[in-house]
Amino acid sequence: xxxxxxxxxxxxxxxxxxxxxxxxxxxxxxxxxxxxxxxxxxxxxxxxxxxxxxxxxxxxxxxxxxxxxxxxxxxxxxxxxxxxxxxxxxxxxxxxxxxxxxxxxxxxxxxxxxxxxxxxxxxxxxxxxxxxxxxxxxxxxxxxxxxxxxxxxxxxxxxxxxxxxxxxxxxxxxxxxxxxxxxxxxxxxxxxxxxxxxxxxxxxxxxxxxxxxxxxxxxxxxxxxxxxxxxxxxxxxxxxxxxxxxxxxxxxxxxxxxxxxxx
Length: 263
Ligand SMILES: Nc1ncnc2c1ncn2[C@@H]1O[C@H](COP(=O)(O)OP(=O)(O)OP(=O)(O)O)[C@@H](O)[C@H]1O
Ligand SMILES: [Mg+2]
Known about the structure:
The chain is α/β, with parallel strands linked by helices. Helices cover 36% and strands 23% of the residues. Helix 3 crosses helix 4 (121-131) and helix 4 crosses helix 5.
């Protein structure tokens, strides 16, 4: 069991606010190395804000966030820097630089961490390009010359640039056709298999939810209401969870998955 290891992410009693608006309260979340975790919940429930708190971009008003065993809001700035080099991020918007080529985009984090790999940025970036299944010919292209699916792969290659142990992805399959989304899911599974990377994926994609995560974290009422394998989550009686899965599209899935007991 993964639970034998110490957590890679350990959030306790998190509280975040925008002015008077309380986004999180009493939020607890534990993730173990090698897990694939999906984060779901209604739009506006605070998924991206949670990600920002984990990434040290937003200071919580209470609680603690531990990553790799470091309490990130209380450790030294040197330790913070070490932590930052151990994760990779793919933001909701993708956020590639349109004036840079694909290769230059992937090289950015490597150059920022230049003291780590002096002179090898190009080679490392090319390896990451191949790792996410892009052809070498894509290296010299600009983002505007690529399809949506390819852009996601470039963003993923950039997230992989510094060989992270943990990758955060905010809605990686948003805007992709079903086939490209399925291919991205496969790619994420193979990254975990080959590199043992821990993945935290924010998603609304039901296919993804049934395919890749070990556990699905359901956010509601400003906190984590459940963190369970999908098969168990859909059976949770909590009204918010039932409401989330009771719309037509989600329902078709739960029916198939549970052998029609939901109909
Ligand atoms: N920079 C900000 N300033 C003020 N309020 C914000 C800011 N960012 C987010 N919020 C508010 O915090 C709440 C949580 O937003 P968040 O972006 O975390 O939701 P989300 O779960 O990621 O939603 P979605 O599924 O639509 O991406 C929302 O009510 C939002 O309006
Ligand atoms: Mg969001």
